[in-house]
Amino acid sequence: xxxxxxxxxxxxxxxxxxxxxxxxxxxxxxxxxxxxxxxxxxxxxxxxxxxxxxxxxxxxxxxxxxxxxxxxxxxxxxxxxxxxxxxxxxxxxxxxxxxxxxxxxxxxxxxxxxxxxxxxxxxxxxxxxxxxxxxxxxxxxxxxxxxxxxxxxxxxxxxxxxxxxxxxxxxxxxxxxxxxxxxxxxxxxxxxxxxxxxxxxxxxxxxxxxxxxxxxxxxxxxxxxxxxxxxxxxxxxxxxxxxxxxxxxxxxxxxxxxxxxxxxxxxxxxxxxxxxxxxxxxxxxxxxxxxxxxxxxxxxxxxxxxxxxxxxxxxxxxxxxxxxxxxxxxxxxxxxxxxxxxxxxxxxxxxxxxxxxxxxxxxxxxxxxxx
Length: 371
Hints:
Strand content: 15-25%
CATH architecture of the largest domain: Beta Barrel
Number of domains: 2
Distance between the termini: 64 Å
Helix content: 40-55%
Largest sheet: 4 strands, mixed
Oligomer: single chain
Number of helices: 12
Strand order of the largest sheet: 1-4-5-8
CATH topology of the largest domain: Butyryl-CoA Dehydrogenase, subunit A, domain 2
Shape: flat
CATH class of the largest domain: Mainly Beta
Radius of gyration: 26 Å
CATH superfamily of the largest domain: Butyryl-CoA Dehydrogenase, subunit A, domain 2
């Protein structure tokens, strides 16, 4: 249906309130979904998707759940958005609103990739950068009208989900170049520490990682080069380059980690801890056996534990999954890329090359010559 004019005003007022009070918000998008082949209105449990269960003169009441909400217990507001397009008859599921984290009826069930060990030196990254993930359960939660941004307009449910998807993917692509550069650097240091940096096979592996890092950065730069300015002055990166880059990164990230592990060797997961290194009885033996070259045994252990924490432990597992799925999985990236790709122009070029469909055949603009 037609959007109510007050939605826009409410959204802008909410944004200004958040800016003025330094309010932090989550993106509460993914529903439990239940049986994936069934529409929201066809589920055995109607609360598999967040829905409006009551409409009152001063607001609405919602029930249902949202999953995989990063940082949910740490923010002030949970911004609830539809997870997909809705059809006529599913008006109760076409809802967008903001709910305070301490709202009556909202329960947050948390999980975390934070290290369980007492010695945080064994977890040099995850002990300071871990983030809880929340399952939000809404049990008849009241939302006042001023915090309701969509209520029943099924034709606009998908636009909100898709808009946030772009920014979720953009965040991943923006950091992909520097993250890939870090992986290359870690691999190069591991090779140096083991005296293998000049081996032909190792340099070949490093070159493969360098190409990956370069292409990740190129994708981000292309997205910004082709960005558009919205009517409110904000900048939107080009979706086609964002999704294509996100796909490329996720498709090859696992392979880059495999290369990193190959160069590191089994010591990556069998290395003694820093506490072992400092132990009066065995510390001297560790320093002797793990030393050598231009790096001390302590430096080698620090590097190994950093790489293990980043790629081969609980935090590394979290990265491996979210690297691929945050902002939509690979199928979603293929859909978005093809949607924005100029397929008609590609077909026109093909017809022109072949000389069919009324086009005059001509030689390609450039060609590689094998000699």
